[in-house]
Design a protein that fits this description.
This protein has about 290 residues and is α/β, with parallel strands linked by helices. The chain contains 12 helices and 10 strands. The protein binds NADPH dihydro-nicotinamide-adenine-dinucleotide phosphate.
Length: about 290
């Protein structure tokens, strides 16, 4: 069966991986990039190099955009706006929910169908079972191209609001970011000991975090429920260990700012009469800060 034609605009590390996956899956693929030479390998594999963005958009019913940021995507697409009518634009550039909604409104006003996406993979993971991509926008537009989008990684549709893919993308990235900060902190502590090595410590850390991640669905069930939380620890117990983490960090010559701030928050809560450490209370506390 003939595969649908696809255009990829933006051939950085990620855009090249996307175009490569589409070529491998048998889609006639047109590509455009500011630095045209980045298309050389793709052209050698069968892609067509467009000389302008407009030519790239016209070549396919579906265009994927993967650029550094939304301002650049906007600047690149504006001159080609006339070619968008009746075509679908999928913006996989990382951005905020409001940027996604603005881009959706702009593309829709030009007669294009618009989907926003968040790629949950690094380039080498594209088209492997580990990759997934979040999409939001009108469901009919997603369904029309779902089969093509599956060539990049599992395609997960989140809803009609164009901003929700960006929201979930950044929420997932925030968890990853804090996890890596925690990793670096813990390695700084562990390797302050003369017998500590990052590799040896990480062999303990990975199973520990993997096991702890299994608790998240139970926390999530408490968060979605109006009933009394099932998972609760004494706030005083948590505070004691957080104080110890701060002290042990300082003793090891490692910055303790995060744990000092965390201890201060827990002390304030205890002073207010809160006795239990639960997921709903932790999330409520975060929402209070704006
Ligand atoms: P790169 O830095 O490799 O590529 C950036 C792209 O933007 C290139 O096509 C570059 O063109 C283009 N670009 C930058 N500045 C301009 C400009 N002023 N005018 C025109 N084009 C410009 O980034 P990635 O490919 O890694 O990332 C692209 C998007 O994918 C980002 O939003 C990123 O967050 C997202 N992403 C990336 C992941 C990754 O692991 N790399 C993972 C998940 C998402 P040129 O080649 O001419 O410089």
């Amino acid at each position: 069966m003939n595969k649908a034609a696809v255009t990829v605009i933006g051939l950085g590390e990620m855009g090249r991986a996307l175009a490569d996956a589409l070529i491998t899956a048998g889609h006639p693929t047109t590509v455009w990039n500011r630095s045209a030479a980045k298309a050389d390998d793709l052209v050698a594999r069968g892609a067509v190099r467009a000389s302008t963005v407009e030519e790239a958009v016209v070549a396919s019913p579906l265009s994927l955009v993967c650029l550094l940021d939304y301002d650049i995507a906007d600047a690149i697409l504006r001159p080609a706006a006339g070619a968008l009518r009746g075509r679908t634009l999928v913006n996989l550039t990382n951005g905020t929910p409001d940027q996604a909604r603005e881009a959706a409104a702009w593309a829709t006003s030009r007669g294009a169908a618009y989907l926003d996406g968040g790629i949950m993979a690094i380039p080498s993971m594209i088209a492997t079972p580990q990759a997934f991509v979040l999409y939001s926008g009108e469901k009919a537009h997603f369904e029309a191209h779902e089969e093509t989008l599956e060539a990049l990684g599992a395609a997960k549709y989140l809803g009609a609001d164009a901003g929700i893919a960006a929201l979930y993308d950044l929420a997932l990235l925030s968890a990853m970011n804090v996890m890596f900060d925690g990793f670096f902190h813990s390695v700084a502590m562990a390797t302050s000991h003369e017998e500590g090595s990052a590799v040896g410590f990480t062999e303990l850390l990975v199973p520990w975090l993997t096991g702890m991640a299994q608790v998240m669905p139970a926390f999530a069930a408490d968060l979605d429920s109006d009933a009394e939380p099932v998972l609760a620890q004494g706030l005083d117990v948590v505070l004691a260990s957080v104080r110890n983490m701060a002290q042990a960090s300082r003793d090891a010559g490692v910055r303790a700012d995060y744990f000092e701030a965390s201890a201060a928050t827990l002390e304030k809560l205890l002073a207010e009469g809160v006795t239990a450490y639960t997921a709903p209370a932790a999330v409520r506390r975060l929402r209070r800060v704006s």
